[in-house]
Amino acid sequence: MAAAVARTVVARGGGGGGGLRRLFSSFPFASPQPAVAPSPPAEPSTNLFVSGLSKRTTTEGLREAFSKFGQVVYARVVTDRVSGYSKGFGFVRYATLEEAAEGIKGMDGKFLDGWVIFAEYARPRSPPPPNGAPSSGFP
């Protein structure tokens, strides 16, 4: 008796939402498109952008880690003005392009203070908005 009921339910499209699945499976879903086109890689320079830093990472720790790959002219961990903790990114400048390339090869995807960091060529700052308008969009 139960088998006969099960056959009837399946034949009518019931039992586990098979009918709904059929209804929606033929719906032509468009694959999502990225909202913003990925930006092209930055031009090689001696200035590197380093992201993924721990809140415990200091400027000296950053300088020390990257100095294994060349002469570090400048290193800075960007910190929060109030708390003084790292914002999770910083900059390293090498003396030559070759040293900067070695710094990226040596540190990109490696651990620093227990966190995986990412090193890439820094992009130049975008120009400020015209007429001194705030960049946040608020008047």
UniProtKB/TrEMBL annotation:
Source superkingdom: Eukaryota
Protein name: Uncharacterized protein
